[in-house]
Write a structure and sequence with these properties.
By secondary structure, the protein is an all-beta fold. It is 2% helix and 39% strand. The protein has one helix and 28 strands. β6 (80-84) and β7 (87-88) form a beta hairpin. The longest helix is centred in the N-terminal third of the chain and has 9 residues, at 62-70. The protein is globular and about 60 Å long. The two termini are 42 Å apart.
């Protein structure tokens, strides 16, 4: 991986303090060194960062994220890092160094100027730089991992690995990052290591308690996500373990059946979209940003929950691309021509859009897949399909 930050770590940068209040953002941060690793962890960025004789005017940047994750245990300057925790990567022109990506993308900005916002994912990793790959110095372009952070022991869920590939101009400045399914990636940390298919997906099973999934692919920087698995009464993940049950007690194995309590029957929560209101016209600047809902497991078990969001503004039609995190133009209008994207394999799901939705007419669809990959095709207005507008 090459990054403009590699050519800028020498020297210092002093940014004058301003009278404006310090700012912070809630982001996910991951570190992938050669000996030091930290799984993706949600932090609130440090409101101020001071290193190498300089300071950032606010914490809404990659350095504020790193400072919060390590509690200040890093060296460098307001350009970037030369040490993270116990791993040093002093600047070597055209070779190894600590670099970063934001939502999987390399950026021409660096240090204080590499801004982050709520919901962003920041990765710091040891890069091989402009030279050939050296296993003792750093990694190439990263592989990304998308997997749930909660699970049920022994119940399979989907994990997705994605390759990132960045291009550069002659000055070493990033010009773009592409995302492709990582076929043949290894995902370890479950009850057994699994290999992804052509779509970059694999079914993972974990035991009860904390787990850390790690995706590796060739010489790419790995990715890891930490989570916890519980059946709700095993004592893991903050639950209370059920006590040993003697056979003489009603309801215990071998004992008399328990007396059923007098309760009001609980109706199951139906599959559907929430948060966004069907038929509502949102005011300008008040468009929704969070997409949420509930998906009951279909026959055969829940494999994946997918959304499709299309937008019409005048004669322009677009569909939301989750990999690019933006709307892309459609050749043909109509929600049926939009692109589906995964939001995980949990019954209760949330997806945070990069920004609030701008002006336009929107159609939001929900699709549930079983473990065989078969999807429910019926869309019902007001539950699995919502139509709304933003002024």
């Amino acid at each position: 991986m090459k990054h403009k930050i590699l050519g800028l770590l020498v020297g210092g940068l002093t940014l004058a303090a301003t009278a404006s209040p310090a700012l912070a953002a809630k982001v996910s941060v991951e570190v992938e060194g050669l000996s030091v690793t930290v799984p993706a962890t949600t932090v609130t960025t440090s409101p101020t960062v001071t290193k190498g004789g300089g300071s950032c005017p606010n914490g809404e940047n990659v350095l504020g994220a790193l400072d919060a994750l390590t509690q200040g245990d890093w060296d460098g300057s307001t350009y970037g890092a030369t040490r993270i925790l116990s791993e040093d990567h002093p600047f070597i022109p055209g070779d190894a160094g600590w670099v970063f990506t934001i939502n999987g993308r390399a950026t021409a900005d660096y240090g204080c100027t590499a801004a982050v916002k709520d919901g962003d994912k920041v990765l710091w990793y040891a890069s091989a730089g402009f030279g050939a790959y050296h296993v003792d110095k750093g990694w190439e372009d990263p592989v990304l991992l998308d997997a749930p952070t909660t699970a049920v022991p022994g119940q399979a869920f989907a994990a997705t690995a994605t390759n990132t590939d960045t291009t550069y101009d002659n000055a070493g400045t990033p010009t773009g990052t592409t995302f492709t399914p990582s076929q043949g990636a290894t995902i370890s940390g479950g009850t057994a290591a699994v290999t992804t298919g052509a779509d970059g997906k694999a079914q993972v099973t974990v035991a009860g308690g904390p787990y850390t999934l790690v995706a590796t692919k060739d010489k790419r920087a790995p990715a890891r996500i930490a989570g916890c698995a519980t059946d709700g009464h095993d004592g893991f993940c903050g639950t209370t373990a059920s006590p040993i049950c003697p056979a003489t007690v009603a309801g215990c194995p071998g004992g008399p059946p328990p007396t059923p309590p007098e309760t009001t029957p609980v109706r199951p929560v139906p599959t559907g979209l929430t948060g966004v209101i069907e038929g509502k016209k949102y005011a300008k600047g008040k468009g929704p940003r969070e997409l949420a809902g509930h998906a009951n497991a279909p026959a055969g078990g829940l494999r994946d929950v997918r959304l499709r969001l299309t937008r019409t503004d005048g004669r322009a039609c677009a569909t939301f691309d989750a990999k690019k995190e933006t709307f892309v133009a459609m050749r043909r209008c109509g929600a049926v021509h939009g692109t589906w994207f995964s939001v995980g394999a949990e019954s209760d799901f949330r997806y945070l859009l990069p920004t609030k939705l701008p002006r336009g007419r929107y159609v939001l669809d929900l699709q549930v897949q079983n473990t065989a990959g078969k999807a429910a095709t019926h869309l019902a207005r007001g539950t699995t399909r919502l139509v709304f507008t933003v002024a």
